[in-house]
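Practice set, problem 2.
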Amino acid sequence: MNNGNFEKSEDIIAGRNPVAESLKSGRAIERLLVSKGEMSGTAKVIISMAKERGIPIKEVDYKKLDFICQGANHQGIVAIAAVKEYVSVDDILCSAEDKGEDPFIIILDNIEDPHNLGAIIRTAECAGAHGVIIPKRRAAGLTYSVGKASAGAYEYMPVARVTNIPDVIDKLKEMGLWIYGADMNGETYCSCGLKGSAALVIGSEGKGLRKLVKEKCDVILSLPLLGKINSLNASVAAGILMYEFTRQRLNIKAK
């Protein structure tokens, strides 16, 4: 199957009974797609189950479900499954503690492109980050497309999915992490000390960091832009910044 973000049939759970059983089993579900008008009977029960688990629900046109399912009998209900179970933020912090390392966490503020998310996960794994935090809504999740773009790194990189990014930032600050945001108007990244317990926040592809998220950051880091284009791809910027953290944490000096 190749339908935009829906690249493989294993992502798709079609039909009321299969979706209901997947929800009962606790399988990681990215989102629930419901045909407009399908809000009664068993559909209502399935929607209620999804809400209890905090799974995003979206009403779509029936024909879109036909297109996604390529002829499968979806009965107006389709679930998009995750390729891996999510962890908690505490799990990520415990991972750092178990390794005897200061936590280094990547927070993504509404990254929507699955290829960007996959690339960031891949770089985070290579750079020694302890985990990635993403929001539940208005952002890419751990779909097949993301797994493919990460070149398998998602198998080794813990990913937590949370309801509220600003609340998570507050929690991490209470636990002693310094929060660094990436934005155009900030301190040059290589002039800042980046050692110790830290989280790096990367904003969305089009809008960057949301205002509240930016306000909660302790330091804003910027990359010098010397050409005519005034921004970098989110995954490229994330990669450059992650490796500056890694360089400083490993005490690597330029020769």
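Problem 2, part (b): a different protein.
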Amino acid sequence: MNGKRAPSSQAADEPRPGAVLEVVIERLGASGDGEATLGERRLFVPFTLPGERWRVRVEEAARSILRAAPLERLAGPARAEPVCPHFGSCGGCGLQHLPPATYRDFVCARIREALARERLSAEKELPLVSAPLGSRRRLRLAFALGRRECLLGFRARRSHRIVSVARCPIARPELVALFAPLREALARLPVVRRAGAGEAALALFAEGVDLVLAVAGDLAREDREALAELARALDLARVAHTRRIEEPAEPILVRRVPTLRYGRFAIAAPPGAFLQATEDGERALQAAVRAWVPEGARLLDLFAGTGALSLPIADRLARLELVERDTGTVAAVKRAVAQEGRIAVAARDLERAPVGPEELAAFDVVLLDPPRGGALAQCRALARSRIARIVYASCAPASFARDARVLADAGFRVATLQPIDQFLFAPAVELVALLVRESLGGREAS
């Protein structure tokens, strides 16, 4: 041995953090960042378009990927003019620079590519339904007390830093109108002054805005009085408190009960109850369920939430059962359907205790609307059942495709797929799909 160190597996000229490069963007990655090939690694650059040449600075280097910040656009195709002055700093939107056709193609490709990775495709894909600007009716804002003011806004891209915003073109104007007065009110709240930071979840109902304030610590009497005064001053329908936004919230003052209305049913929504991001998106999901669930069917609605997708067609069904994990939501829906003999509501954790083949035998159609993680355990049970028709709503194409693969292996096909863009300018996309298998029920209409 001569004592010399063996050469590094990484070439000396490979880019490291801080290096400035010129690259040509080849495609858009799954997160919407521009993607270029650099040797055997992929380089991702936010806010770029395919066909553009950029000068970029490498910020992160890993074995197979690099991440870079855009410095100067050198050449490329026309770009869309961002609709928001906070674009580029706020982490809420990453795609406002995409021309409309490129944007639509990217949104739909997110679904097709996820299916293709599982060797699947939809036999029929309906045109994309897009929510308009100014339609988002729920927001999750972060806040923190600064030296001079309270910061209230969205997290920066890939960061916990708060970008304080004055506008949000995708949100309902009623929510945007609260930004300034809420920022000022939070700075005066005793509980916020003690904690220093937290989150605020805003949801718009016909009765007004429902505010869930997530701040660490217990509430003293003065805190409750201050929150009640905030609700009166801002004309909120309700204000509630929780220590963490994912945990149940305690109502502090209810001035008007936030209510969800599905057909002839009215559900008093618990604080923080799940609400589809836009009314347009919700209507598109409901329309697909109405078209794909036959009249007179016995329908099992799993991960049902407040019943937004099944209750509107309840009068057409022979039987409806809704299953949801959140006990507060289950109680609210039970109260709303208490006089309905054909409707049952049950609390159940479907990830740990999926509905099995024997129980599924009592139904003709299953409706799934799981969280982002999907419904793998439930789909495995469905694959072993006699069910021949499933309507599956999803906000995560990857988990949907994984679950659809399980169902496809049991004879299902993705007959019809409806893409829905209700998360404007974000890489997330909603979908609802009809899955059928013919061997158990003859030719299914799609």
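Answer key, part (b): The chain has three domains: 20-75, 104-132+275-436, 138-260. Residues 31 and 199 are 24 Å apart (CA to CA).
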